[in-house]
From TrEMBL:
It comes from Pelagibacterium lentulum. Pfam families: DAGK_cat, YegS_C. The lineage of its organism: Bacteria, Pseudomonadati, Pseudomonadota, Alphaproteobacteria, Hyphomicrobiales. Residues 1-131 form the DAGKc domain. It comes from the Bacteria. Keywords: ATP-binding, Kinase, Nucleotide-binding, Transferase. GO terms for molecular function: ATP binding; kinase activity. PANTHER family: SPHINGOSINE KINASE (PTHR12358), SPHINGOSINE KINASE RELATED PROTEIN (PTHR12358:SF54). This is DAGKc domain-containing protein.
Length: 315
């Protein structure tokens, strides 16, 4: 195997990176100590878009996304169909895509495994043309996430304040109407408290909490929650931990290849791969199969499920 050349893209603003005292030079030295060919950015203080452009213009084969899920999604969105591969050095809190791909979470283990990682071609989804890698959530969850961001770094008193806000917000939650049109041409009105559109499908197995084994099956999954009280949220979370959450009576699951979601509101607050933002309606979702190349540990070859099989109840 010809040695790869890596471009290190470190998110120095990541809370985890700052808390651990990780620097670009530390990572560069760790690469070099293992005989890995790596380059670092000429202008690490530049804006995100400028840094991405520089990484894509470099003569390296692999761009290393060193940061959390926001860094991975932002870089992956720019890199899909670029001809370069992305390596994920997980330096965030959740590290969702890294966990899905069984990528080591320890820096030293990751560096040791990097030369033997192979190319995986995964799906990239879009909402109104904006790429995402995990899911987009509408309704109650983005409101709770926005509240969480307001208390980040605020200490124990801020955490208690958020917990009080969380309970009050869930208790006051009301359903709202959305018009949903799927790729099958069917249109329906749903009154929901939360709705998510995910890349591929989340697994149902003990201990699998928002994890996906298949990232390149080429479909979207629509999760509709009509009622979401505090007790039902706890029940759903417990179901995810023990592996029977898809049987929840309040949850409807549907595999689609595209979906459009309309609201009376001109804009909706949504959470895209963990980041809360406002998007104009309607929300039009699509998928670009296997359009992003990611390095990860080798995985055994498995038959790829078809969309028709998933429609038959295997989501």
């Amino acid at each position: 195997m010809t040695p790869r050349r890596y471009h290190l893209f470190l998110n120095t603003q990541s809370g985890t990176v700052q808390a651990a005292g990780i620097t670009e030079k530390m990572l560069y030295d760790a690469f070099v100590a293992r005989g890995l060919d790596v380059v670092i950015e000429k202008n690490p203080e530049a804006g995100f878009a400028e840094r991405v452009e520089s990484a894509l213009a470099s003569d390296t084969e692999v761009v290393v996304a060193a940061g959390g899920d926001g860094t991975v999604t932002g870089l992956g969105a720019a890199m899909h169909e670029s001809g370069k591969a992305m390596a994920i050095l997980p330096l965030g809190t959740a590290n969702l895509l890294a966990r899905d791909l069984s990528i080591p979470l320890d820096i030293n283990e990751w560096l040791d495994a990097l030369p033997t990682m192979t190319e995986h071609h995964i799906d990239v989804c879009t909402v109104n043309g904006e790429p995402f890698l995990h899911k987009v959530v509408i309704g109650l969850i983005p409101d709770l996430a926005a509240g969480r961001e307001r208390i980040r770094g605020g200490g124990f008193r801020a955490l208690l304040g958020f917990l009080s806000y969380f309970v009050r917000r869930v208790a006051r939650a009301r359903r709202f109407a959305l018009e949903i049109t799927t790729s099958k041409g069917e249109t329906r009105i749903e009154r929901v408290q939360a709705l998510a559109v995910a890349s591929n499908a989340y697994d149902e197995a003990p201990g699998h909490f928002f994890s996906r084994e298949r990232l390149n099956a080429g479909f979207l999954t629509l999760y509709v929650l009509r009622h979401l009280t505090l007790g039902k949220m706890i029940k759903l979370a417990a179901g995810m931990l023990i592996g029977n959450w898809k049987q929840d009576e309040e949850l409807e699951i549907e595999a689609v290849q595209a979906v459009s979601i309309r609201s009376k509101k001109p804009r909706l607050q949504v959470m895209i791969d963990g980041e809360v933002e406002s998007i104009a309606t309607p929300l039009n979702f699509a998928i670009r199969p296997r359009s992003l190349t990611v390095l990860a540990p080798p995985a055994p070859d498995e038959p790829r499920a078809t969309f028709n099989e998933l429609q038959a109840g295997e989501v």
